[in-house]
Fold this protein.
Amino acid sequence: MPARLKVIRPPSFSPVAIFSGLAELRNYADLLYTLSVHRVKVRYKQSSLGLAWALLQPLALMMIYTIIFSVLTKVPTSGTPYPVFVYCALLPWTFFSTAITNTASGLVSHSQLITKVYFPREVIPLTYVFAAVFDFLVASVILVALMLYYRIALTPMALLALPIMLIGVIFTTGLGLLFSSLQVRFRDVGLAMPLLLQLWTYATPVVYPLSSVPARFRPVYDLNPLVGVVEGFRRVIVTGTAPDMPSLIRALVVSLLLLPIGYMAFKQREATMADII
C-alpha cells in the first residue's frame, strides 16, 4: 500500500479547516485510541499506588476543604453533608483542571515526536482529555461510597449528569486546543496555568453554593461556563433538583462557540508547530 501523502499548506484561520481536519482525524482514529490507552497505562504503570492516584487528588482536596469550610468556618449546604457537597463539585472541576494543565503542555512535552513524524497534532491534546475522563470515572467511585455512607439516594434527575458533563468536556476540549497551540509559541501559558486555575477555582462554586454569590455579582460571575457545569452536576446528583438552567445554557453556548474557534486556531498554527516548538 503506498504511503499517504500529506501536503502542509500555509496557515489559514478558516471554517474549512474544521471539516478537513476532522476528515483527516478520522483516518487516525486508531492512533488516537492507542495513544489515549497508552496515556492512562503509562501514568499509573510504574507507580506504587496505581489507579489510586486518580482518587488521591480530589479526596485530599475534599478533606482539606471539609476542615476549612465545615469545621473552622461554616458554609451553607442546605443540609447536605459537606464532604459530599464539595466532592461532587470537585469531580468535574478536577477533570477540567487536570485536562487543561496537561493539554497546555502536551505538545511541548512531545516536541521530539512532532518534529520527526507527521500526524494530526490535535491527537495529543485530545488524548489528555480522554485520560482526564478516565480519571473522572475512577474518582466517581469515592462519590458513590460517600453517598452510600450518608444515605443519599439518587433521583431520576441524576440522568442529567451525563449531558452536563458532556458540556464540560466540550468546553475543556475547545479551551485545551486553544491553550496547547498558544503554548507552542508562548511558553508563558504554561507558567501562568497554576495561577489561573487557582483563581478560577474560587470563581467557580466548588467549595460554596451558587446561592452564596451576591445577586449584584451574578452577571459577571455567570460568564464563567464552569458555573453551570459544576453547580448543575452537584444539583442533579446530590440534591436531586434541576440545574440552574440560565447558567447551564450559557455554558452550552460558550462551549459550542469555543470548540470550533479553538480548533480553527489550533489548525492555523499546526503548519508551523514543528518549526518553532
Summary: The chain has one domain: 49-276. The chain has eleven helices and no strands.
